[in-house]
Design brief:
Protein-Tyrosine Phosphatase, Chain A; 8-stranded mixed β-sheet; 6-stranded mixed β-sheet
Length: 454
């Protein structure tokens, strides 16, 4: 790629994909907001045209942002939502009123900012990255809509993330653990110091349960800038939870009221906690009065989160889960034991080479009868054979299979799940878990989803 790419005219969605992918990838970072600030200034600072609910944390951002989006729309407001990475299509990154942009809308969003992006490229030391470009597209789209509120996930970290040119009215901190250690640090406390950069003067901070050292970092940053913190477990939380068909039933304690018989069509205790955080964030944003119980129940009933313990097929049951670090894998493993009865459960695992895949395998080992090691189509993917070598040290030789092609891996896992007896389990009661990376799950979802599925 040339240092200063020429922004060529685009006609199709494929043209836009190609143009964006020619820029610096999301995995190449320079800790600076200079380029995105210059870009958004050229765009007229669209991120200041609406209030922002900003989310960071190691896991749970996407599910929680979707819950917040759904609840706010249930209250009658128009939303914009920015998320990353995408599961299947770049268009998923920018949503209006809960729906991703169409391919034509995505092309239009690119065209609207392309000439100013070229000017920014020419005036800066480095050209805009892929991520910075899409952030600019999102903020401009939300201003043009216009939206009543933008729900925005950070891409990585907080302080230096391109989304952080916005000043959050509500800053949401999901649990902080170790991920992206090459960029953010080896310890949760180091990562927390980066993530609390989204806390701005006068904002309300909604924090999930954190380790004591992380909580201290959050409290210090809030005190420094004059923000107010509400804490899961002290100010809000899950009062009662029971697994239910298709999800779970909750009693949630919000900031101003309790909400009983709240059905959330997502699996796992971690999604119950995400729901509590989402509710508190919406309460903090919307009103000083309790929300109507029916609004809360109806809103949560509509929540979806593709690729997060998503049942994509039956006979055998195939579950997609985008866990890509040990913290996320432990939560998913607990949810599988809590909400599913699949014996044997066969894992199809494809990971990125720069992740803690050994920790991920260790987290999943207790719930998987066997795994099929595979790889996704990206250059960052760890080779299936290399993953299998590590897996054999955790699962044992007899429980590890290798199929570099993802479709072959899924077929092999489905056969193992249906045979069952190989692992001493009942025939026909097994299932398949596809996991290890958002990209792996996205490619599997494209293969497996019904043709008429949205």
């Amino acid at each position: 790629m040339p240092d200063f790419p020429v922004v060529e005219p685009v006609e199709t969605y494929a043209d836009v994909e190609r143009a964006l992918l020619e820029r610096w990838p999301e995995t190449r970072l320079e800790p600076s907001l200079d380029r995105i600030e210059a870009f958004t200034e050229l765009l007229g600072d669209p991120q200041r045209a609406y209030p922002v609910i900003h989310l960071t944390g190691t896991n749970g951002k996407t599910s929680t942002s979707r819950m917040i989006d759904t609840l706010i729309r249930a209250a009658g407001l128009r939303t914009g939502r920015f998320t990353s990475p995408h599961v299947e299509s770049m268009t998923e990154r920018i949503s209006l009123d809960g729906e991703p942009l169409t391919e034509q809308q995505f092309v239009d969003a690119y065209r609207d900012v392309a000439s100013l992006a070229q000017l920014s490229d020419e005036e800066g030391t480095h050209p805009l990255s892929f991520f910075e470009m899409v952030v600019g597209m999102a903020y401009a789209t939300f201003a043009s809509a216009p939206v009543d509120v933008a729900v925005v996930e950070v891409g990585m970290g907080g302080s230096w993330d391109a989304t952080n040119v916005a000043d959050a009215t509500v800053a949401v901190l999901l649990p902080v653990a170790v991920d992206h250690s090459a960029y953010l640090g080896e310890r949760p406390i180091d990562i927390a110091r980066e993530k609390v950069g989204i806390i701005k003067p006068g904002s309300t901070v909604v924090s999930a349960v954190q380790s004591p050292e992380v909580a201290e970092v959050i409290a210090e940053r809030a005190a420094e800038v004059g923000a107010t913190v509400v804490w899961e477990g002290r100010d809000f939380g899950v009062e009662y939870r029971v697994p239910a068909v298709g999800g779970q039933m909750l009693r949630l304690r919000g900031l101003r009221a309790e909400y009983d018989e709240v059905f959330v069509p997502l699996y796992g205790a971690h999604q119950g906690q995400n729901a509590a955080v989402a509710l508190a964030a919406v309460e903090a944003f919307l009103t000083d009065e309790p929300l109507e119980g029916d609004l809360v129940r109806e809103g949560f009933e509509q929540v979806t989160s593709p690729g997060r313990l998503e049942v994509i097929r039956r006979s055998p049951t195939i579950v997609l889960d985008a866990a890509h670090n040990p913290h996320g894998a432990r939560a998913s493993a607990e949810a599988l034991e809590d909400s599913f009865a699949l014996d044997p459960l066969i894992g199809v695992v494809g990971v990125m080479a720069d992740k803690d895949y050994e920790g991920l395998l260790e987290a999943f080992e207790p719930v998987l009868a066997a795994i099929v090691c595979t790889q996704n189509s990206t250059s960052r993917a760890l080779k299936a054979d290399d993953l299998a070598e590590v897996a054999r040290g955790i699962f044992g030789i007899d429980r590890v299979y290798v199929a570099p092609r993802l479709d072959d891996a899924i077929d092999q896992a489905a056969t193992l799940a249906e045979e069952g007896g190989v692992f001493g389990e009942a025939i026909g009661s097994g299932g398949v878990l596809v996991t290890g990376s958002v990209i792996t799950v996205g490619e599997a979802r494209a293969m497996l989803k019904p043709r008429d599925r949205s």
